[in-house]
Design a protein that fits this description.
This protein has about 180 residues and is mainly β. The chain has a single domain, classed as Beta Barrel (Lipocalin), CATH 2.40.128.110. The chain is about 5% helix and about 60% strand.
């Protein structure tokens, strides 16, 4: 079966995250630098293999001091773990345009299984004749599973940050070549 290689288009993609702050509101941020590939041979992508790599130093919460703290040993420890990675194991069609994307995510050198919910946006040719495929991906990780935590607590002893990190990615891949 012919398999196509698809390259993630950074200029038409984004990776976002949200976490509860003081249990009253969300703090949002982005990772601005990342890359990825997808290999697929089937029209419905059910044989797709995804690999995404995120540059931890590219964290952007619109607050320079907070971003530097997130890169520190309290959170991502970017000096020792400069990248996060996701490698898929399966891409299962649920119904309509909905899929489950299951694989392993590695953050701070710790690898855990995860299943993301995916809405497949479809395929289209751009103005230059390149075939593109779009995916809307959502999921959650518990920050404690990856040793991402600060010891900060409120005056009442509650956590400053929630434990669940919500992730959302809108990604486009551009078809590069066909492989056997």
């Amino acid at each position: 079966m012919e398999r196509a290689k698809w390259i993630l288009d950074l200029s038409h993609s984004d990776i976002q995250f949200k976490i509860r702050h003081l249990v009253i509101a969300n703090i949002s941020g982005y990772f601005r630098a990342f890359s990825g590939t997808m290999y697929a041979g089937k029209d419905d992508f059910t044989d797709a293999e995804f690999k995404l790599t995120v540059d931890v130093y590219s964290v952007d919460t619109n607050n320079v001091e907070r971003d530097e703290h997130l890169k520190s040993a309290d959170f991502f420890n970017a000096d020792y773990y400069p990248e996060m990675e996701f490698v898929s194991q399966s891409f299962n069609h649920i119904d309509g345009d909905r899929y489950d994307l299951t694989g392993n995510i590695t953050i701070k050198g710790i690898t855990r299984p995860i299943t993301f919910k995916v809405l497949f946006g479809g395929e289209a040719k751009d103005g230059f004749g390149n075939m593109r495929a779009g995916f809307d991906i959502t999921g959650e990780v518990n920050r404690n599973d990856f040793d991402i935590h600060s010891n900060d607590t409120t005056e009442a002893g509650g956590l400053v940050l929630g434990e669940e990190i919500k992730m959302h990615a809108n990604i486009q891949f551009v078809k590069e070549t066909d492989y056997n």
